[in-house]
From TrEMBL:
GO terms for molecular function: ubiquitin protein ligase activity. Pathway: Protein modification; protein ubiquitination. Gene3D superfamilies: Leucine-rich Repeat Variant, Zinc/RING finger domain, C3HC4 (zinc finger). Functions as an E3 ubiquitin ligase. Residues 9-83 form the U-box domain. One of its GO terms (biological process) is protein ubiquitination. Its EC number is 2.3.2.27. This is U-box domain-containing protein. The keyword Transferase applies. The keyword Transferase applies. It comes from Castanea mollissima. It catalyses: S-ubiquitinyl-[E2 ubiquitin-conjugating enzyme]-L-cysteine + [acceptor protein]-L-lysine = [E2 ubiquitin-conjugating enzyme]-L-cysteine + N(6)-ubiquitinyl-[acceptor protein]-L-lysine. CDD domains: RING-Ubox_PUB (cd16664).
Length: 414
């Protein structure tokens, strides 16, 4: 693959109208036009008494430094020089990459080769496409994870995979390469990173697993779901780590895997519900993280084990209701609708009403939500009203609903 020369586009504002070069010392005439000091001095000293750009006669030949523009040019030059240096330093030709692949496969200067590839892949998207399309590269990289147990090497390989797996067709090749080789060893290497790697390595590992689970191939999700050690480590990270980016990556991975029916009961068995409840109850949890927690709860609520665990976790239900208008609204409504309307869970209904959930459900109805969400909200309100009138007391759920009916008469659309 040939490499074109690097060209840097100079903003026209930074060019001197006379020399057409980047200005080193911009100064402005009384006409408001800015020139490089040396160029305008030469113009005026040559006997001209006009502004070169406008050809207006100058009432004064005094010029003043344009400090703001000088500062902008300085910042731009620094950024451009840094970017160009990085891009130039990370160029790899087809021949060089072929040599790297041979060395990586033969374990010759493996770490050095991988470090250069990481630098190259990090530089720009074109480089990542080049690596993803290069014949034999993906297979060689995956093969390293099936052989090496050296932490630094494993971290570098996963970093490369994280950088290139989003490229078109790469996920499929990674998946194919894993299961053509020693996939147990591959998963063991990923587990090693999830346990002992840096935070960034853990995030990258979770993302690579998510890419594979997101494949439109049921088998890929099932294979990952069958790796009980992977699920155990991911849930342990979710329970113990406070890094928001890592939590988000783990949640995204678990959500992608949880599409598989067989994995949901196992996630529940590994105490997923208490872990998600704790995240939702934590006031410091980001909205994006809370939304992913609700999405995962909605997924596992579609299996009997998940429904039972949620029913026995009133704090979890209350936390979902509390965040109903803030995070994962559609998933929260779908979960509550399934538990209350489809399965008629009395415990969940009581918690929803006591948590002022009916008011929040009506507010969702009056917001700009999708039609199917509005329909679920309508069924929820009817179910909660009927359920509470049948089984609730005046001071309990039924009383809460009556208070709701008087207090929400004037709710306006959000």
């Amino acid at each position: 693959m040939g490499r074109e020369e690097l060209h840097i586009t100079v903003p026209s504002l930074f060019k001197c109208p006379i020399s057409m070069e980047v200005m080193k010392s911009p100064v402005s005439l009384c006409t408001g036009v800015t020139y490089d000091r040396s160029s305008i001095q030469h113009w005026l000293e040559s006997g001209h008494d006009t502004c070169p750009a406008t050809m207006q006669v100058l009432p004064s030949k005094i010029f003043v430094p344009n400090l703001t523009l000088h500062r902008l040019i300085h910042l731009w030059l620094h950024h451009s020089t840094t970017t160009a240096a990085a891009a130039t330093a990370s160029l790899i030709s087809s021949h060089q990459l072929r040599v790297f692949i041979e060395n990586i496969t033969a374990n010759v200067d493996r770490r050095d080769c991988l470090e250069k590839i990481v630098e190259f892949a990090s530089a720009r998207d074109e480089n990542r496409r080049f690596l993803g399309d290069f014949d034999g590269f993906v297979e060689a990289i995956v093969g390293v994870l099936c052989k090496s147990a050296e932490m630094e090497v494993v971290e570098l390989v996963v970093r490369v995979l994280d950088l290139i797996t989003s490229q078109n067709g790469v996920k499929e090749r990674v998946y194919s390469s894993i299961f053509r080789s020693n996939h147990q060893k591959w998963f063991a290497s990923i587990c090693l990173l999830l346990r002992n790697g840096s935070v960034n390595s853990k995030i990258e590992s979770a993302r690579v697993l998510e890419y594979l689970a997101a494949l439109d191939v049921t088998e890929s999700k099932r294979r990952i779901a069958e790796e009980e050690e992977i699920l155990t480590v991911l849930l342990r990270l979710l329970a113990s780590e406070n890094d928001f980016n890592l939590c988000d990556a783990v949640l995204s991975c678990l959500t992608a895997v949880s599409v598989t029916r067989s994995v949901k009961p196992r996630l529940v068995r590994f105490r997923l519900i208490p872990i998600l409840s704790e995240k939702l109850l934590n006031p410091n949890t980001k909205l994006s993280t809370a939304g992913k927690c609700v999405k995962l709860l909605s997924r596992v609520s579609t299996c009997p084990e998940g429904r039972s665990a949620i029913s026995e976790a009133p704090k979890c239900v209350a936390a979902v209701v509390e965040r109903l208008m803030k995070a994962g609204t559609e998933d929260a409504v779908a979960m509550l609708w399934g538990l209350c309307c489809v399965h008629g869970d009395k415990k969940v209904k009581d918690v929803v009403v006591k948590s002022n959930g009916v008011t929040k459900i009506l507010l969702v109805m009056q917001s700009e939500c999708e039609g199917h969400v509005r329909r679920m909200c309508g069924e929820l309100v009817k179910t909660l009203r009927v359920g509470c009138k049948v089984g609730g007391s005046g001071s309990g759920s039924d009383g809460a609903l009556r208070r709701y009916e008087t207090k929400t008469t004037h709710i306006m659309p959000c």
